[in-house]
Structure formats: structure tokens, C-alpha cells
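Record format v2
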Amino acid sequence: MSTTTPTITEPAAPLTEPPREGHRAKAVLALARFETRELLQQIPVLFFFALYVVLIALRLMSKDGMDDFPVLNTVDRRTQATPLLFALALFICANAAALRSRKHGTVQQFGVLTMEPWRRTLAHVLSVIPYAGLTALAVAAEYTREALKPGAIGHGSFGELVVGPLSVLLAGVTGVLLARLLPSSFVPILFVIAVYVLGVLVSGLIDVRQEWVGWLDPIQFFSSSGGDPVPSDLLGRPAGWHALYVTGLCAVLACVALLVAGGRTRAVKAATALALAATAAGVIGQFPGDTSALDAARRTASDSPAKVQSCTTHDGSTYCSFPEWAGVRDDWAEVVDRVRSGAGGTAAKGGLTVRQRVYTDSGVEIDGAIDPSTTPGEVTVGTRWGGNRVPEFAVGVATVLVAGSEDVTTEPMCDARAVTIMWLVLGQDPTPTATFRNVRLDDRTTGSGVVLAPTNGLSLSGPQTTVVRELLDRPRAEMTARVKAHWTELTSARTTTAQAAKLLGVEVPKEADRCGE
Amino acid sequence: MTTASTGPATLTATDLSLRFGGTRALDGVSLRLTRGVTGLLGPNGAGKTTLLRVLATAVPPDGGAFTALGHDPGTAAGRLALRRTLGYLPQTPGFHPEFTAFEFVDYVAILKELTDRGARLREVRRVLEAVDLSEVRGTRIKRLSGGMRQRVALAAALVGEPGFLVLDEPTVGLDPEQRMRFRELIAQAGEGRTVLLSTHQTEDVAMLCHRVVVLARGRVHFEGTPADLTARAAGRVWSSTERDPNALAGWRTGTGSFRNIGDPPTGAELLEPTLEDGYLLTLDGESAEVTA
């Protein structure tokens, strides 16, 4: 033990006036800062926040071609589920922090300190707010990165974007509340299990995507069922009301925690009433009410999209899209120009109408096939763009250039036209073999197969595939010239695949052309 | 009862009582404290810890009242005002083992609502230096020895310069060197403050306290100076070669002779009384025997 002489100064004169409320509020903020710092030293919080950031970084660094054209009304919802593990960690650690005194037997000695238990509870509640703020920063960074991409489509919703940070806040506040209601370290684990089981049971009873009651779940999991995005106004998601509901819920739980901890002041009671009102408003606002207008808008978008679309004309072709997709019309035009550059006859100069279409028959964002357009000269384009969607669109363009309309694909084309379509798609492509593989459903470049398109796929027989591959092995300029020279024959349903091969000067396949396999 | 005092009263308690079920833990306790260190002596179960908890506002009394430093803890405002100038070291203080010594004292300082961050941090450094823990202030409490932890608890009680310190057996479990060190700290703390020190050690009282209160079965049996308590045994301590059967208590000393307390027989060899003799005689005979 050291031998230095201790020095304890004389105490200041006892305070005779009660402290001002502002002074006490500052003390609560000081404790909140302290608790925030303590939470930051908890391994689960650090680990899961790092994991959250890594997941976002990996998603942003993804090289999928469609990521260059993010649809922002799906990007915003994608941000909601990612921080859930982090929220869970915060729930556990905030609960442990609020139980710290009980666990380590300091309740008695801290019970005589100036700050009352309800103010300490308030500090615990406030201590989780910076983590919701951090989540908000991460969400903002992710969304901004996507929104700043030149190919970004449409716009996101603030109501959707705040759900992720609010879920983190809700988790932290719930952890504090549970510590006050059921002060045991086992409770958080049991609570998580109970919530999970309840979630499974409820989702087994109702389709939470369709039922209004599903919106009472604070966290709306975004599970894409493979359907393409739709314009924002067709989503019918009460995002703003839901954000208000979750905000109100956070405030209600926080107020209940304060009341349970003894903070039955007028301010807390007033805040509780306000929070309950906000939550109720959020619940009522989420109620779908009369959906006839939304249903009608979805039907219009699906059946008569021209009524709600705007169009631009480029080099003789017309490009019509829902307003949010106006920015990608130039990219469509590039593909049309490239495909048309390989065509001959009137197709090389004739105009097309590119029409964006969506499928909403069974709801929005549901995986469903769009029927081929029966309008001559009209090419369908979906709401996803980039990656494989580009050659698929090229198939649609080439089909209309060769056959006049998309609906020819309802039956297999056992003739030269399929070869011509594929040449137009691949003839000007910088990596034709890779594109050929990607655009086929079976990812192969041999044998029969289905080539993907925005509407019906194009059936390709084995001999047709062989001829296409042969063409790709020849000099492009020479093949392009031959296709143009024999355009009439190559776009005739009466020209066989073998005849097409002969016309184009490539080896005639030995096997019989059995279409429709 | 002796009522000698030095200086004006800083704490006055009148007829404090508290029951736990069928047990009367405090039974009409009245006392008066002044600045300086007052010792609270008593056997186990005397109600010392209960009295300290009442005076530290940890538990309200069933009956009676007290004021400390001019504040009446019977009212919410008075309780808050008293707590702002109170330092309390419980018998078995709890710690947050993952906190460093500095964090723990800082945490307590925040709970004492020291809001000026710079001043608060200076104060935390000051009290840690006062209890000679500056060098280990960044060490987690779980890595500190028992004596160091006790000093952390004292630092936590001292932070914010409280005018009223309540210390419940702070030297229990400390080795002699640590106990001596603690006595120095408590003596320093008693300069200008009102300190109520509960202890089993009459040595602590003899060395530290200007006043002493003896509590037994929830009642005050003595209140006065240590000299007054010692004087109670004047002429009632004697030496004998055998244990005197009429003595309230008696024990063999290092010299081989017996030290007896009680009513000496005629012609007995009287000894110089100590504080402990006075304390034992102040308790009733049964308690004295048990304690002896």
C-alpha cells in the first residue's frame, strides 16, 4: 500500500435550494451518454453492427448488372430487415444495462443517490437513440449510394427508410421496458422466442402481405416473391402511417417503462397520452379503407398502361414508360438501335413502339408472366433493367423486327426466323457466346432450349442453336451483310432452318429440325 | 444517557422506529450528531445497519423523524436535498465489475447529478487520488483486491463533497494495514463533515471518533464522547488470577491473569478501563457476556 498522505478536502456548503429541472435534465443526458458508451463496449453490439455494415458494403459492391439500375422503391424496403440482428443485440444489451444494478447488488447504495430510478430509466431509453441514429446513417448511406447511381429508377419513401432505424430504437426501448417489468436476465431470451413463435403462428393464420393486421407487426419483412417492381403509386403501402405507428409504439413503450419505474409526473403522463394518440393514428392510418381507387390504378397500369405513361420518340421509335422509368428510355433506345442495325428490309428503318408493362393480376410484385403484346410493332419491356434484362429485351425487339409482333412466340418457330432473331440479338453483342448462354434458361449453348424474353420465351431447337453458333464463329460483318441480303427469306415462316443455314453459308445441321422439344 | 456534544447539531433524530415483520429493528432511537466522526457501536442485530439505512434515506422509518443538514427527508424535496449532500457506504457495497474504478465513481457522480462534465471528471480524479487509487483508476473493478474495492466504494461515497457521510462497517475484512489506511481516510473525511461510522471495532472509535453512540436491541444505550464511555468502566475493571464468577465478563490476558468487568469484590486490583470495557458495561449483562 502506498504511504502517500490522503487529502480529502472539506465539503462545500450544503445546497439549500432544490436543483432546477434543467440541471436534472442535464444529469439524465450525462447518464444517457455514459450508458451509450457502455453499450458501445458490448461485444454483441459491436459485432452485429460491424456485420450490418459489412452486409451493406457487400450489397453495394455487388456486380450484378441489374444493380446498376436500382429501383428505389424496393431499395428503401430492402433497408428494413438488414439491421434486425443488430437490433436484437441492442435489445439484449440494453436489457442487461438496465438490469445491471440489480445483478450486481448496487440497488441499495444507488437508491439513495439523487437521480431517481425513473430518470435512470429515461437515460437508458435515451442511450439507445444514438444506435438508431447510427442505423439511420447506414440506411442513408446505402440509399444515397443507390440513388446516386446514374441508372437509379424512381424514388424511395421516407416512411420506408425510417423503419430500419425505428426497429433498432424499438428493440432497445423494449429491452429497457422488459428490465423494468420482468427483471430477470432470462426474460429477453424467452421474449425473443415468444415473439418468434407468435410471428410464425400469426403468419400461419393470415397472409401478412395481404391483411391489414399484418401492418401491426412493426417490422415489415421485405421478401421478394420474384415479381418485378411496380410504380410507387401502385404499391399501396401506408409507409408514412406505419412509420408513425412504430414511432408511437417506441414512445409508448418508453413511457410505460418510465411509469413502471415510478416516473408518474405530469410530463410523463402527457407524453404517454401523446404517444398513445400517435400510435392509434398510425394504426388507423394503416387501415386500407376503400381500395377501389388503388385496384383501379393497378388494373389501368396492367391493362391500359398507355393511359398513365409518357412517351419519347427516338430515331423513329417510340418509348413509353411509367414516369419513374423515364430515365432508362435512352438505354432501351440503345438496344433497339443495336438490334435494328443488323436487320434488313423495312425492319432496318421502321419504327417500333417500346411499351413498359407490369403484371398486377394477383397483386403487385407477384411473380407472373406478362402476355405477349398483340399490337403489331409493339415491344414489351419490364420494370427491371440491366444485367440479363438487356439481352432479354433485345430478344423481344428482334422478335418484333423479324415477326412483326410478340405474339408469334406463343407457338414454337420451327423455321429460319428463330435463327434470324438470335443473330440480331447476338450479332452486334461484344460477348455473344456469354450472352447466348445467359439469355437461355438452361445456361447452355448447345441443344434445344428456351431463350428468355420480357414476355414469352423463344423456343430454340437443337439445329437452330447449331446454326446460331456457326454464325457467331464467322466474321460479323460478312454475316451481317448476308442476313441483310436475304432478309425476306430469313424472316419468312416458310424458310426452314436448313435453308437459312445454306443462305447464310454455314454448315447445314445434320439432325432433323424437331421443333417444340 | 450522556448528551455531551461539540458544536451545533447537524443531525437530530427523534424517536425513530422501524419494524420488519414482528421484529422491532429500531425502537425509539433519538440521537444528535455534530460535525466530525461519530462512532456507532453495537452487537450484531442491534439495529446499526437499519439505523444507517434510515438516516441515509434508503428506507423510511415507521415512526419518528429526523433532520440532517437542515433537510427533512420526510418530504420529497427535503429527501432530495439531503441526498444531494449525502455519501453512503453500505455494509456490503456492490460494484459493477466490468467498470473501471474511474467509470464506477464517475457513474456514481452522474447519479449524484454532478452535471458539469469537466468539474465532474476533476472531482472523480480528486476522490480517487484521495483514496490512493489514481494508479489503478483504469483497471476494471473485477481485477482489484478487496481492499481496493472498498476504497473505490469510499471514493464513490465521497464524490461530490457530501456534507453527511454514512459509513457502515467500512473496515470489515480489511487487513491491519488497510484498516489503518482507512482510518486515515475516515479521519480526513470527518474534517468539516458529519460522519456516522458503524463499526464493531472499539479501536476504530477510540482512534477516530469524537462522539460515540451505543445501540442494542434497537435502542440507544449511550450517546456521548469516547472518554465518557470509557469513564463508565472506572472502578469496574479488575485483575484476578482466576476468572471471577461474579464478573459480567472476564477473559485471560496475555500475562496469564484474568481481566474482569462488573462489580469488583472488595480489595480487588483495579485496572485502567478502556473504551471496550465501557462499551461492554453499557450493554446489559447478557449482551456483555455474549460479546465478551
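Residues 117-130 of chain B form the longest helix (14 residues).
The first strand of chain B starts at residue 9 and ends at 20.
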